[in-house]
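FIELD: query
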Amino acid sequence: MKLRIRLAVSTLLTAFVAVCLASPSLAADKMGDTKAERNVADTWVFWPNDGQFQAFETGVKKHVAWRKGAGDPFVWKVYEPVVGSNLDRYAVQSSNHAWADLDSENAWGKKSDAGKQFSQDVGQHVGKMQHIFIVTDEELSHWIDDEGYRYFGVTTYHFKGGHSADIKDVLKQVHAAATSQKWPYSYLVRYTVGGSGGLSIVNPMKNWAGMADPSPSLLEVMTNALGSKQAAQGLIDKFSSAIKERDYTVWKYRSDLSTPQ
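FIELD: result
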């Protein structure tokens, strides 16, 4: 039941982002570089060589400590998947940036020869890696800061074509309902730039107890806002039918591998 509810939440909230990606003008607007929009996460995904996971972690600890000492302007957080179908990887991410911040980071990297240092510390233990940007739709996200978050459920979607108008209209209704009813749960609506793309919803948890059914559920919140359970279920069903494929992964925050405090 919990997973079904979370997937329904993700379907509805990510839909608007799908519309943005389908429309070049909307996507460009969302990705505009302004000081007010610090919604870009610089993200690297690493697959260690077989049998070298411990050596990879040791190298990462050494490297993030070096970066901090060398004055890296970015703070990096490391995440390890603990639930899902692809558990042999690590995600290294620095969030809350404007696009221009990436230029500053690149300039620092060249000046400090960070690429060479990475090769020495970690590179020999990496079998494959991927570099992407993840952009948060701040207008449709609701995030309550809490240092206690340790797990992050991430549902990634790809949608069928031809549903843009319905997606945009219904998602606005769903987000308005969650906002008006003051639904007390955090979520991020995000889309990926690079790789296979895709839309995702991030649900934070302090522990495994966070996997329990939310109360009230999103369906209950929508029912109260729209006036009937039938109307609320109709919105969920409409968007469920637009899904082409989806993936659910739970990532664990690895503070021991992240930039030292």
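FIELD: remark
The longest strand covers residues 243-254.
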